[in-house]
Amino acid sequence: MPTYRYLGNSGLKISEITYGNWLTHGSQVENDVATACVHAALDAGITTFDTADVYANTKAEQVLGDALKGQRRESLEIFTKVYWPTGPAGPNDSGLSRKHVMESINASLTRLGTDYVDLYQAHRYDTETPLEETMQAFADIVRQGKALYIGVSEWTADQIRAGHALAKDLGFQLISSQPQYSMLWRVIEDEVVPTSQELGLSQIVWSPMAQGVLSGKYVPGQPLPAGSRATDDKGGARMIQRFMTDDVLARVQQLKPVADELDLSMAQLAIAWVLQNDNVAAALVGASRPEQVAENVKASGVTIPAELMARIDEILGDVVERDAARTAEGAPQQRPS
Fold first, then answer.
1. pLDDT at 231
2. Exposed e or buried b for every residue in 191-210, given b needs 16+ CB within 10 A?
3. How many Cα neighbours within 13 Å face the side chain of 273?
4. Which of 15-24, 102-111, 114-123, 128-137 has the lowest mean pLDDT?
5. Residues with catalytic annotation?
6. Which residue stretches of the chain are H helix?
7. Is the dihedral of CA 288, 293, 298, 301 positive or negative?
8. Which of 38, 109, 283, 310 is the most buried (most CB within 10 A)?
9. CB neighbours (10 Å) of residue 43?
């Protein structure tokens, strides 16, 4: 069973292993398998589920909503997001304008089959909408009871600080940030994490296994495993590309003795590693097979001794990306269409 952590400076507890359905539900796996994965998550004690309107162009929310039908709503924490284009991608079908945010929350609630989401997240920062407009829309959504809490995803430290100040003025608080974070991708450590700690936000981190690279299944010089993320032409292969060098893959193979010492699989080690950061409230973990969920949950509650954390750093060395500027560099410079 996963343990629970408070999300930011709030009274909301979430399961530190959170089930996410990006790149799977509505696209890579069939709906019955997706439903089986959600039920496996519930059976494993996971109560927190993360999705977004853009995943599989709204289908992922629908699949998650259908899979959670019949569950006690008060026992679940359901998260979704807004920003990326949905529908026919018209001029107002993306971004964080009041129009798009208000329309998106209503559509998400319908697809998810619920009256409210526990956390509504700005999926990226919108350079084309005044931040005041976005934050006012979020404040109204909170007051209407359609979202209990508000978070952001892949915002820089400065953007988080500005958003937090406006939220405070409007009578609500930002409580979370959802960035990419793993042993190989540590760009949040120097700026986003200290700012979040100061302001009372937690991290809900995506890709703790670096798109599956840290599971050790990709071996230098060996063919790519059939059906793996690296062979997925719907977006997975492009996302994983930056980690698929012989140097990175060779160093990842050297992590196996560390995992063995802790009696963990390499995937479990990767998840447990991000949870050692006390500003991380949850690791987002997806699944394409129900049995993966039960395995991933075993990373919950693990303490990695300081000497093994140091050994991981030694093994990975300079292949780790630490540049804080990468958050801004990877952000859209204009609203997508």
1. 62
2. bbbebbeebebbbbbbbbbb
3. 30
4. 15-24
5. 55
6. 31-43, 59-67, 98-112, 131-143, 157-169, 192-199, 236-240, 246-253, 256-261, 266-274, 290-297, 306-316, 325-329
7. positive
8. 283
9. 12
d(CA 49, CA 286): 10
Q: Does position 195 have pLDDT exceeding 90, yes or no?
A: yes
d(CA 20, CA 50): 5
Cβ neighbors of 316 (< 8 A, separation 6 or more) are 183, 184, 251, 252, 255
Residue 125 has pLDDT above 90, yes or no: yes
Tokens of 87: 């529908």
- Considering the entire predicted model, what is its pTM? 0.95
Tell the burial category of 59 from Cβ atoms under 10 Å away from its Cβ (0-12, 13-18, 19+): middle
> Quick one: tokens of 110?
């319908």
Sign of the C-alpha dihedral, residues 237, 238, 244, 245? positive
Quick one: pLDDT at residue 236? Answer: 66
Locate the domains of the chain by residue range: 4-329
pLDDT grade, residue 235 (50/70/90)? Answer: low
- The answer to whether 184 and 321 have CB atoms below 8 angstroms apart is yes
To which residue do tokens 């920062």 refer?
A: 125
Length of the chain counted residue by residue: 337
CB 29 within 8 A of CB 40: no
The answer to whether residues 135 and 307 touch, using CB atoms and an 8 Å cutoff, is no
Domain 4-329 in CATH 3.20.20.100? The answer is yes
Q: What is the DSSP string of 93-127?
A: SSSS-HHHHHHHHHHHHHHHT-S-EEEEEESS--T
Per-residue pLDDT band for 1 (boundaries 50, 70, 90) equals confident
Q: Which residues pair with 285 in a beta bridge?
A: 19
Of 1, 10, 168, 148, nearest to 79 (Cα)?
A: 148
282 sits in which H/E element = strand 280-285
Q: Does the pLDDT of residue 25 top 60, yes or no? A: no
Q: DSSP characters for 130-161?
A: -HHHHHHHHHHHHHTTSEEEEEESS--HHHHH
